[in-house]
Amino acid sequence: MMDFKKVFGEKIELINEQLIDSITDIENDRLREAMIHYPKAGGKRLRPIITMLVADSISRSGSAALPFGIALELVHNFTLVHDDVMDKDETRRGIQTVHSKYGVSEAILAGDALFAKAFELIGDMDLDGDRKSDLTSLLARSVILLAEGQQMDMDFETEESVSAEEYMKMIERKTAVLYSAAAQGGAISAGAPEPLQETMFEFGRVMGLGFQIWDDVLDLRADEKLLGKPVGSDIRNGKKTLIIILALEDLKDENRTRFLQLLGKSDATDSEVEEAVGILDSAGSIDRAQRIASELIAKAKVLLDDLPEGDSRQRLIELTDFMIKRDM
Q: How many C-alpha atoms does 234 have within 13 Å on its Cβ side?
C-alpha cells in the first residue's frame, strides 16, 4: 500500500500551514481557539490534495488552486463542529469535541465563522472574476447539498426501512459532494474547459461514494486504534449503512430478529457487537459492500484518463486506490 505520509507529506505541511494561517486573524481568543481546535489536530487533508493535484495535472497551477482546497477543509471542519453539537458527541478522534471543550454557543459561532472564512478565501484568490464566481457557486451549492444529506441521514434514524438507492443518494450529498467540489474546483481554478470540469466532478463523486462505503466497512473490520473510535459504533448507533441495508434485505427468521434486537442498542457489549458483525458476515453484506466500493474506485480511476499524463495524474490514481486500502 502507498505510504501516504511519504508521498503527500510536503503537501500536507503546506496545507496545514495555510489552513491555520487562514484562522489566525480572528481577534477574539476564545473564538479563534474554538475554530482552530479541529484543524490543529491534523488529518489527511484529502480534499485540498485532490484540488491541487487536479490543477497541477491540467496546468501546473496547484498552488494557485490551493485556497479553494483550504476553503473546502474549512467547510468540512464547520460541518464536523455542528454535527458534533447535533449528535451530542463528547469526543472526536480521541480529542474533546469543540462544544464539550468551549461550550455549545461557542461551537455554533466557531462553525459559522469557519463557513464564512471559506468564502472569504475564494474572494481573495488570484484568479479572474469568472473563475472566482464559478468557485463561489460550486462551494455554495455543495454546502446546500451537504445539508440535505445530513438531514436525510437524520431522517433515516426514525424510518423503519431505507433502500440502498436512498442510502446512496444520502452519502452522495453528505460525503461525496466535497470530493466532487475538490476535483471540479481544481479544474475550474486551472481554467479547464467545461467538459473536463464535469468529468472531474464525476470523478470526485464516484470516488467519494467508494470512500464512504469503505468507511462503513472499516467501522466493522478495522483495528480500533487505527479507526479512532469503537469498532461497531454504527451498530450501536443504529445507523442504516449500505452493509446493514443489504443484510436486512436477505436476513430471515431468527437471524433477522436477533440482529434487529442488537441494532441501535447503545449499551451493547463488545460480545453483542461481535455477534451482530457475525450475522452481517453470514449474510455476506460486508463483502458485498467491499466489492461495491472497489467497483466505484475502479470507475473513478477510469475517469482520470481525461487528464494529461504526468506525475500529478499518477498521484491521483494512487490516492484513489488509497481510499479502499486505508486503515484496515
A: 23
